[in-house]
Every structure is written in structure tokens, then in C-alpha cells.
Design a protein that fits this description.
CATH topology of the largest domain: Arc Repressor Mutant, subunit A
Distance between the termini: 38 Å
CATH architecture of the largest domain: Orthogonal Bundle
CATH class of the largest domain: Mainly Alpha
Oligomer: single chain
Number of helices: 7
Shape: globular
Largest sheet: 2 strands, antiparallel
Length: 156
């Protein structure tokens, strides 16, 4: 059931919750629902694995596990586990860094690029449906707000 249905059906009352708390809960619930939907949609790999692939693609050079941990906002150990699963499926490889052989770079394989190509239309359709009717200015404001919240979390 969606949040707005829970409210409309008088199952929960969020009225007394301050907006910041409500937003945090809403984001958490959204992430859980989105992950379940994306896992089902993608099928072959999990959303977290697919998100790692997306982040690797966005890096200007093949990232290290530490680089990817920073981008994903997850621990080195969690990212390593995600990457090992992707490696076992033939979607990524680990290659030594050209300058520092102690570093391992994460490289997408040809099989990974084929996988992404096969799933491109499905992903685009889901994104269009999810964001239908939401003006770009609203999306940009949401992005700015979440980035500010994250910035506040890092300040000590």
C-alpha cells in the first residue's frame, strides 16, 4: 500500500509528525519500495548491484573500491560484496592500477554493457512513469534539499 493510501484510509496519522521527521520516514519507505520494485524489474541482479554499475559508469576513470564506496555512500565491505557478486556474474573485473599495483580498479565487462543495453528501455519506462507530471524545477529543488541534508550529516 502507498503512503497516501495509508493516510486516506485512516490507517496512520502523520499529522503530528514534524515535516523533517516525516520526510526522513518517507525517504526510508520510498527506498524500500523502490528497491523491491527495481529488484523485480531487473531480475538478473539486485537494484544495489545495478546502482553500483550506474555509479561505475559515471566515474571519469575506472574506480577503486574506496572511490566507489564514497560514491555509493556505503562501507568498503558492503561495496566489495556487491562487486564480488557482479564479478561472479561476469559483469565486472578487478584490474591492478597502472601506477599503484596495490590498488584494484573496477572495470565493467562487455557482458555488463550488453546487460545495460538490454535493460535500457525498461529502466527508461519506469523512470518516465515515476516522474510523470513532476516539473524539472521541483526535481531540482528536491535534489538540492537532499544534498543539503547530506551535507549537514557530514558536518560535525
Amino acid at each position: 500500500m502507498k503512503i497516501n493510501e495509508l493516510v486516506q484510509n485512516d490507517i496512520v496519522d502523520f499529522g503530528a509528525i514534524p515535516p523533517a521527521y516525516f520526510l526522513l520516514g518517507l525517504l526510508s519507505a520510498f527506498e524500500n519500495r523502490f528497491q523491491a520494485m527495481a529488484d523485480k524489474m531487473i531480475g538478473e541482479i539486485s537494484w544495489k548491484q545495478f546502482f553500483a554499475i550506474i555509479c561505475i559508469q559515471m566515474c571519469k576513470e575506472d574506480p577503486t573500491i574506496n572511490d566507489l564506496s564514497d560514491v555509493l555512500g556505503s562501507s568498503h565491505q558492503n561495496v566489495k560484496q556487491i562487486l564480488l557478486k557482479l564479478e561472479s556474474k561476469g559483469l565486472v573485473e578487478f584490474k591492478p592500477d597502472a601506477k599503484d599495483k596495490r590498488k584494484q580498479r573496477v572495470v565493467l565487462t562487455e557482458k555488463c554493457y550488453e546487460f545495460c543495453k538490454r535493460n535500457d528501455d525498461v529502466g527508461r519506462d519506469v523512470m518516465e512513469k515515476m516522474f510523470a507530471g513532476i516539473p524539472e524545477k521541483d526535481l531540482n529543488k528536491t535534489i538540492q534539499t537532499i544534498m543539503k541534508i547530506e551535507s549537514n550529516m557530514r558536518e560535525e
